Amino acid sequence: MNVGIIGAGTMGIGIAQVAATNGCKVLVYDANAKQVETATVGLEKTLAKLVDKQKISAEKMTEILANISIATELKDFKDCELIIEAIIENKEIKTKVFTELENHVSESCIIGSNTSSISITSLGAELQKPERFIGIHFFNPAPLMPLVEVIPSLLTDKSLPDKIYNLMKEWGKTPVIAKDIPGFIVNRIARPYYGEALRIVEENIATPEQVDDAMKTLGNFKMGPFELMDLIGVDVNFSVTTTVYKEYFYDPKYKPSLLQQRMSEAKLHGRKTGKGFYDYSEGAEKPVPQKDEVLYDDIFHRILSMLINEAVEAKRLGIASDEDLELAMQKGVNYPKGLLQWGKEIGYDLVSEVLENLYDEYQEDRYRQSPLLRRM
Ligand SMILES: NC(=O)c1ccc[n+]([C@@H]2O[C@H](COP(=O)([O-])OP(=O)(O)OC[C@H]3O[C@@H](n4cnc5c(N)ncnc54)[C@H](O)[C@@H]3O)[C@@H](O)[C@H]2O)c1
């Protein structure tokens, strides 16, 4: 298959690697020619490391690199059967690229976008042939994270989601099909993991290290919310939350945190700037959390109940099948189990009670329960 990738940044080059590893001929284009070079050199280094670790053979590395070529203009995409766009997260710029692209590609060429937060329908509607357009949302790092959310717009051809779903399976990914709603599956359902954790710290109920410790020890999460925000980038996480909040017409459930805004303003972005909720400079020691059984239990149940409530609401709205909702959280953000299953295990009555108590205390719509929760 001839695949085109537009944008050779973090995601674009990762997706190119996935396609090339699976035998596709891949053309990569970036508006910044230097970026393609940097990305290709980076990819060579990544592959060489995989050879050193005996994860792939030297022949496979040669094959992958031979499958990737550089395009110097969008015209070069004329023979592509599938093009995945992974450029800057800006609707106007993406639309401009699609408009030009459609002048060069064949009638049957499928165009996908890796956007995290722009409505697929709003992008697709600007195309001459909106039925060929679909969201294909990989997670970072694309070669390692199994999940791919496949998101048809209201105008996408009805047969296209299954086609892309099957292709992603062939590429060794775990695809799920999601409705075109802000945050799709993962970035919507996971919001309370960060939002509620930030709130707990903002209200001086606990420290970041206590929240992280509680979620890891009681919930078996691989990383606590603050460790994860530092990894993702505090600024990036803040921007996703802000977008989701606006796109849901300012639903208080997704209200961003002032603490996170201040951290972003201060460029305390986490690992990439050397300091976030934790200090990553040389010799810095991670604070040791003060263990507190009752507090940990409260933190864990508060955050988990908010997450389960989100999953139940997503089920109620038919954002994806139950199976896909469960898979998405496990394969996209490494949750130790699906949230619907988790709700069953701890008891939906308990989840409902935790939310009711929070609502009683705060009198905020943020803690409203999904109408489905009481019927679960
Ligand atoms: N980084 C993530 O964790 C992540 C995860 C999933 C999805 N996404 C989405 O993937 C897309 C790309 O994100 P990224 O993190 O790879 O960004 P990035 O900044 O690493 O790369 C974007 C690339 O696009 C290029 N570009 C900008 N305008 C262009 C144009 N008009 N034509 C061609 N190339 C252009 C830039 O030169 C840059 O190399 C965004 O839509 C983002 O929302 C990102």
From TrEMBL:
3-hydroxyacyl-CoA dehydrogenase NAD binding domain boundaries: 2-180
GO MF term list: 3-hydroxybutyryl-CoA dehydrogenase activity; NAD+ binding
Superkingdom, taxonomy of origin: Bacteria
Domain 3-hydroxyacyl-CoA dehydrogenase C-terminal residues, every copy: 183-280, 300-376
Oxidoreductase recorded as keyword: yes
SUPFAM superfamilies: 6-phosphogluconate dehydrogenase C-terminal domain-like, NAD(P)-binding Rossmann-fold domains
Entry's Gene Ontology BP terms: fatty acid beta-oxidation
Pfam families in the cross-refs: 3HCDH, 3HCDH_N
Keyword terms of this UniProt record: Oxidoreductase
Keyword Oxidoreductase applies: yes
Protein name, per record: 3-hydroxybutyryl-CoA dehydrogenase
